[in-house]
Each structure stands twice: as C-alpha cells, then as structure tokens.
Amino acid sequence: MTVAPERPTRDWPIVAPPQYEGSRIPTPIPTVLPLPDALAQSDDVLRINFGPNHPSTHGVLRLIVDLDGEQVVGLSAVIGYLHTGFEKTMEHKTWWKCITYPERIDYVGYQNNELTFVLAVEKLLELETPEKAVWMRTLLCELSRIHSHLVYLGTSALELGAISMFWYCFREREMILDLFEMVTGARMHTRYFQVGGLAEDIPEGFYPQCRTFVEWMPRALEDYLALLDRNQIWLERTKGIGLLSADDAIALGQTGPILRASGVDWDLRRDQPYLAYGQVDFQVPVYPNGDVYDRYRVRVDEMRESTRIVEQCLRRLERLRGRPWIADDRKVVLPPREELHTSMESLIHHFKIVTEGYRVPEGEVYVATESPRGEQGCYLVSEGGPKPWRVHFRAPSFVALEATAACTHDALIADLIAIVGSLDAVMGDTDR
Amino acid sequence: MAKRLRDYGLQSERLLWPTKGPSHFEEEMGADELERALGLTTLEKAVRWAQTRSMWPDTFGLACCAIEMMSIVSSRYDIARFGMEAFRSSPRQADLLIVSGRVAHKMAAPLRQIYDQMLEPKWVIAMGACASSGGMFNNYTILQGVDRIVPVDIYVPFCPPRPEALMEGIIRLHEAHRAGVPPAYERKEVAT
Amino acid sequence: MSYGKLPGFVAEHEAFGETTVTVEAASMRDACEYARDALGFAMLCDIVATDYLNWGGKGVSGYIATASGRDINFPSTQGLQTLPEVKPKRFSVSYHLLALRQPPERVRLKCWVDDGEPVPSVVSVWPTADWHEREQFDLMGIAFTGHPNLSRILMEDDWDGHPLRKDYPLGGEPVRFSDAQ
Predict the structure, then answer these.
(1) Model confidence band, residue C4 (pLDDT cutoffs 50, 70, 90)
(2) Cβ pair C156:B141 closer than 8 A
(3) Which residue of chain C comes nearest to B104, CA vs CA?
C-alpha cells in the first residue's frame, strides 16, 4: 500500500474531512493499479480487455483489467485511439481557420473549447471584446455546460441500467440544440466565437425561446432527481463507490466536478473570473464524500446554477439589443460587407485578413477556463506570424482518466463502469 | 380467368390431409377477396423487406458524430420507427456498422476486426466527413476515409451530420437494399 | 511572490499578466518540489514541450495586428522589422502550476533542453505528471529520467519518430483540385 506524501499545511480550500486514511494513489506507476503479489502467480486471475469498442458510450477507451472473480485487482488504461493531431494541424492553419479545430476536441462541451482558444488569442492581441459579446459568450458557455451534463447524466444512467434517463436528458438536450441552431446556424460545432466577439448578431427569436427553456429546466431537473435520487438501486450503485480523497485529487491534478465532489471548494468561474462570471450571482456546489454519487449530485446542481446564470445573462442581453457584437479592430476582424463597396481601407483589410490572415504578436500565454469537465487550458505560443507556432490544450479528461486507478479500490467490475462514467471523460479531449 | 388460390398448388396442409376441402378462411372470405387480401412476393423480396425493417446497428461511436448518432436514438428523431433502436454491443449480433467519427491509425485495426466479426449480410455507413474522407484532418494520424479498410455502402457528409441527414442515409440504404443492390463487400474492393 | 530561491533559478519574466520562471533543466525536480512545498503550488496543471526549430524564419515580422505593433492607420509610420528573440536551445519544457488559494496564483516554470538532453521527472512530486510526461515524450521526444513507465501513450507503441517536432511532416495525403490538371 502507499504512504501519504508529506503535505505542508496550507490554506487549500478543503471543506470536508478526509474520505480515507493515507493515499490510494498506486505506486510505482500512479495510473496503473498493480496486481498484488499474492495473486501474481495465481491461475484465478483473468485479464480482460475492455476494448476500444464497448457499449458504455465513452468512446474509444481501452482498459486492461485483471479480475479475481468479480473483483478488480489490476487496472491500466490505454488511450490514443482517437489521437487526431489537433496541435500539429493547427500549426499549419491561419489563426482564423484554427477556430474550427478546438471545438472538436471536447465534442460534448464544444463551446468551452472554442472559448479557451479564442480567449488565448485575444490575450496575446490584447483585444477587448464588446459587452454584448462577453455576455452572450457567458450564456452560451453555460448552455454548453448544461448540455454536457445532460449527456453525462443520460449516458451514465444508461450504463448503470437506468435506461429511461437517456430519453429524458436528450429531450432537454434537443431544446438546447435548437437554441444553438437558432443563434449560430449549427447544432454542434458552431464556430460562433470569433477573435474579437461573436460571428453574427443574436436573432430576435432567441430571447423568448431561451426564456421558455430557462423556465422549463428546473422542472426537468426535478424529474431527474425524482427518477434517480430516491431510487434504491441507483443509491446502492453509486454511494461509496470510487472514493477519491481531496489530497489525492489535488495530487492527481483533478479539477472541476471531480474535485468539488471530493470536498475542495474550487471553481475557476468564481475564483479566477473570466467573461462575465464576476458579475453574475451563482453558487458552487461542493460535496464531501468523493464518491460517484457526489459527482452526480455536483453535476445536477451545476445544471441548476447554470440555468440561473443563463437567466441573468438573458436579462442583461435583452437590454443590450442593437449594440455591436464584435470588436472594431479592422486589422483582426473583418469589416462589414457594406463598407467594402465604399471604403478602400476596408477592402485592403478584408483582403489581408482573408488571404494571409492577421498576425498575432510574439509571446506565449496559458489561459484556463472552467469547462464542464474541469480546467480546460490553452497554451499558445505565437511567433508573430499568421499561424500559431505551438498550441497545446490542457485536457481535463486526460487528467481525469489518470485517476481511474486510484478510484478503483476494492471495486467490482460493475463498479468500474460507474467509476469511469462518473469521471466523465470524453475521448476526443483525452487524445486530442 | 383469374387463377384461384388452390390453382397455385399451395399444398402445405393438403399434403398431410389430402381429402381436406377448402378451409374456413377461404370459404368465409370468398376466393376473390382472398386474392386481393394476400400479398404475393418472391422469397428474396420478403427477406429483404424483413432485413431492412430491423437492421441493428453496432455501437461504434468514435467521436462527435457519435453524439449525433445518440440523438437519433432519442425521442425526437426516433430511429425505433425503423426498428433500429437496438444497438448491439457485440458485432456478431449486428447488421450495420455506422462508423461515426474520425478513425485514427491506432483504431484502424480494431475497426477492421469488428467489421470482420460481423456476419453477412452486413452494411457500413461512413457517417460524417471524417469517416468518409478524413474530413478536416489531413495529417499523420487520421485515416483518410474509412473506405480504405472497410467497403462502405453509404457516405453521409457534414460535420457532424444532422440526425435527419443520418436518417436519410439510413433510409437510402434501406431503399437500395430493397431494390436489390448487394451490400458493398460484394460490389467493390476496399479503396487503396 | 519571490522566485529567487528556487533551486536552479535562472531568470524571471512577466508578460501578459503571467509569470514565467526559467530554471535549469537538471534541477527541475528540486525546483518543482520547492514550488509545491514552500511556495504552495499544489497542483500541476500541464506540462508542455515546445520545439523552436527554425524559430524566427522569414515571413515573421513587420505588419503586426495590434498590441504596440505597426499601426497601419498612420501612413507615415515606418514599418520596422521586428524579429522574435532568439531562443537559447531547441526545446523548452514548461510546467504550469496552480496555487489553490484566494487569489489564485499561476506560474510557469520553464527549462531549456537540446535534443536528447534529459529532464528529471516530477512524478514523485505530483503523480499527475505521469501521463503528461509520457505525452511529451511520445509527441516531442523529451527524455524524462526517473519516470516509472516512459512509453508511448497517444501514438502506437511501435511508431517511429516524434510527430509534433517541427522536422516531422504533417502527413496526410495531397489533395487534388480539378483545375490543377
């Protein structure tokens, strides 16, 4: 077993007593649960392959699991089956064309990835976005968070056998996708966030439809809680499963709902505010037990808080009708098409931006936002040219899967499904 | 004069019971109405009709297109009306492989293995731009089109396809199959 | 926050509201341990390696969009060519650290290495570094000494080469256009 590493007493925001003694991070390799010596020679241990194609819909994750009966005694994860080479491909595209790539990394919370990249470019350019763009980005990111948690809830419940949750969650998901389609033109992968603001203005029909959604969502959440929260089977399958203590979670670099379910009060929206999060009123749910049930409750509560944020953004946006939605800096942002007929400078700006691309000054930045899975970071190095020099995305799902071995302590194989589901890893985000 | 049913020589129960007269069913309806009420078809057409009405897909969701594939199972774009809501986890029980998402080189071997484990007749739909042609990723790691390793029946473009687009692809597959078009593995080689 | 006492400290640099501390590669592990224990950076967010081969080549200068570059709206400004600064070695390895307190603090610890020069692994300091270091080894070829399981993670186990390096081709296939013939 492992010994707890020395931790100095610091003012870390841990609000719960330790979930277990010591540390459950395996040694020597922190992400591989090693077979105990007693069983290493035994014939009873079965090594199975939770191959890249399996029915729990997390995509292409491969787990090599050693089983003693139904007990999981050894575990290691193999990833890379969806490695797309985003980072290398983006080095060969101009800054504008790059915006379509980050969305496909975390393909369930896609607006957040776009946001991270666009914020990083705007930080290098030191470009200010207009107020309307800031509020609309906040609104869309929160809708994206609700969307991501709905997909998590639907698929996790599906895997544990609560199949009807899938249809309920996807019903609300369709409402959100209708909103996205109305504003951006596409259901998924919207490319709506541009460097400097938004791609287009907000259509008039958006406000009443969003308000209908905001009024409907709390009732839908009550439906979910009624279906799951008092269901004895759900409680038995999620309570006490997959424990991760706060110290282990911090050592393993976890962020987002996994960290908050382990009793650490940390949320980048509140602690390091970006966009309009400093001006909206919302709570951050923190739960003390660090098990699968708490992660589920954190996400459901986050959905409720996100609905409140959407409502506040909506009220603000209704007052900002008619304002500009993208920055005015013509060296970065395309001029409006009517001007191209009359102004020579606009024509030149348009030509330069479309053919060569705008240039971003030399430097390196790391911008982190709170995606539905945790801290999504974008590390950007610019050479001063029209294409990025190095783009790297800090993927929360990549880090979440590192915790699989530490969470799988005395787990049965059915618990393994629940644990991997609760870590909410999206393989596009893991493999990039 | 129109042929009566008994003139077709449909003999099943009369083989065992040669002296049996017309059945209650025939007598009640009258021979002409019975001719109109029955559908006559060939065995092939009947089998194809049954296959298209319950073509079970395999759970092969890879990336973003998988999320749109999940939404055709949801209640708005209900795929259960085509008899396809039973996504089988085992390829041995599946008829249709919907390759939804980008296929990395590392995943190409499992994909071919899954395809090989499916039993004939089997169909493949390349869903999305990445499965059809490599999509927006023209690089060292993404297979430029899944038809390099499996023969594909239907290509559904867009990134990701709307659920309606995927359904159009599925319906066209059904129509093609009912019209007699053989599955792709009989028609073409894998593209090189 | 003074970073002068970090083991192997070389320089400190602030830009865009972020602090970058350059540290010698050989003492990276000790610097990370000091940062975690004495300075309170509890969480390692990310490890990134960057390849600066052919940095500052032609085509990179002059007309910069904003942020004190050349302003095209003033016609008589002279477009002085600004070349990016020369980097000391080919690869930089950056560690992004986060302190979980109010207000939160972030710092980037950076070290410069040449091709083949090893960097001590920080898995014993933050276990999360396991996969991050494997990823940078796989894609960039940085050798981390003391890592318990330094193997390929994203590419296949028998892949040749390190894809994210600048001298590795993008790959893919040439796209034909109908009017090119």
Answers:
(1) confident
(2) no
(3) C155
